[in-house]
């Protein structure tokens, strides 16, 4: 979708939460930068800005301060994340403002993270570390992953990258997307896929259709041997239902990188469950990831100033980058 500043420069406001994008000032040419940490600073910076970069993608400051008076000149919002749930609120979606995301930066790292979790479960890495701490020599048999069935919910670039790596170690992978396409099952087919699933991987965007998709009812369709891996968004899972199933032995384990509330509260039972791997929303964050995010935004900024097609334009009706806007669902 072409969108232009209509001039050689632009005014870019950056919501960064105290961790400013590295090297951004050197990458934006003659654009004017306004840095904002708090909602109050964002409200002061927005008037006259035609570009907003939400570097702090966990903040809801944009939603809190949004008003026609402050966003009269705003043409484009870019979020430094693959998910857009923090900025895809009704007022922005109904506006003329174009929304883009950082699709493509996290695909391979998140796929490697998922593969690592699969292998950690199969080879009982947590058990070996616990025995090592106690200086206990205990021979065990572990599982092979070859031939295991992984159902991956989310058929975008991240889901495809996950499927590629899991397939490379001999797993049978089934991709699930919004609709059925070549090699992809439709979302409404998911209940029929769960009974023989060994690993259920959630890598879908958070939409009205996917929110709370893993609950007591869907968990009941999974075999007790199944493990759940969530690298999508925390609210894809009804967390209390998952905790109850894990505690009751209804599921064999879970690797969770995202949660309903982040940071995960210290009193959450997930911290101390032996069959749970907890990580702090870091599955896509590898060495150099911030530089890659800046590179993507800087490239799009050049396109914006030239009136060229922007990368990763989010379909406002679907809530993600669709095949008709430069990406796949």
Automatic annotation (TrEMBL):
Checking Pfam families in the record gives:
2-Hacid_dh, 2-Hacid_dh_C
Top-level division of the source organism's lineage = Bacteria
Q: What is the designated name of this protein? A: D-2-hydroxyacid dehydrogenase
From the UniProt entry, list the residue stretches annotated as the region Disordered.
1-24
Instruction: Identify the keywords attached in UniProt to this record, alphabetized.
Output: NAD, Oxidoreductase
Annotated D-isomer specific 2-hydroxyacid dehydrogenase NAD-binding domain residues: 116-283
Check the record and name the PANTHER family matching this protein: 2-HACID_DH_C DOMAIN-CONTAINING PROTEIN, D-ISOMER SPECIFIC 2-HYDROXYACID DEHYDROGENASE NAD-BINDING DOMAIN-CONTAINING PROTEIN
Q: Where is the composition biased (Polar residues)?
A: 1-13
Q: Which organism is it from?
A: Pseudonocardia nematodicida
Per the UniProt record, the lineage of the source organism begins with:
Bacteria, Bacillati, Actinomycetota, Actinomycetes, Pseudonocardiales
What InterPro entries does the annotation carry? D-isomer_2_OHA_DH_cat_dom (IPR006139), D-isomer_DH_NAD-bd (IPR006140), NAD(P)-bd_dom_sf (IPR036291)
Give the similarity note.
Belongs to the D-isomer specific 2-hydroxyacid dehydrogenase family.
Residues in domain D-isomer specific 2-hydroxyacid dehydrogenase catalytic?
A: 36-314
């Amino acid at each position: 979708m072409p969108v232009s500043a209509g001039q050689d420069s632009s005014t870019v406001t950056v919501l960064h939460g105290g961790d400013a994008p590295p090297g951004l000032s050197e990458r934006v040419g003659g654009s004017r930068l306004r840095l904002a940490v708090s909602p109050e600073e964002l409200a002061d910076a927005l008037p006259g800005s035609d570009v907003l970069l939400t570097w702090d993608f966990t903040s809801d400051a944009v939603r809190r301060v949004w008003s026609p008076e402050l966003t009269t000149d705003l043409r484009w919002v870019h979020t430094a994340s693959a998910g857009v749930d923090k900025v895809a609120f009704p007022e922005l979606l109904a506006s003329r403002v174009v929304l883009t995301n950082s699709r493509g930066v996290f695909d391979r790292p998140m796929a490697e993270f998922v593969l690592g979790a699969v292998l950690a479960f199969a080879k009982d890495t947590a058990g070996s570390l616990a025995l090592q701490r106690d200086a206990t020599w205990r021979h065990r048999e572990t599982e092979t992953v070859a031939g295991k069935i992984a159902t991956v919910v989310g058929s975008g670039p991240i889901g495809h990258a996950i499927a590629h790596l899991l397939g490379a170690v001999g797993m049978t992978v089934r991709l699930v997307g919004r609709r059925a396409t070549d090699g992809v099952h439709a979302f409404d087919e998911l209940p029929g896929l769960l009974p023989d699933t060994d690993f259920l991987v959630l890598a879908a965007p958070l939409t009205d259709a996917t929110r709370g998709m893993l609950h007591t009812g869907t968990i009941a369709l999974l075999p007790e041997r199944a493990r759940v891996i969530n690298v999508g968004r925390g609210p894809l899972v009804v967390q209390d239902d998952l905790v109850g199933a894990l505690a009751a032995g209804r599921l064999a384990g879970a690797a969770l990188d995202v949660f309903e509330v982040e940071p995960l509260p210290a009193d959450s039972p997930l911290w101390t469950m032996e069959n749970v791997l907890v990580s702090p929303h870091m599955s896509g964050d590898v060495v150099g990831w911030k530089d890659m995010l800046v590179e993507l935004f800087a490239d799009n900024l050049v396109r914006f100033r030239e009136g060229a097609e922007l990368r990763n334009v989010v379909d406002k009706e679907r809530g993600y980058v669709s095949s008709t806007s430069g990406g796949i669902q």
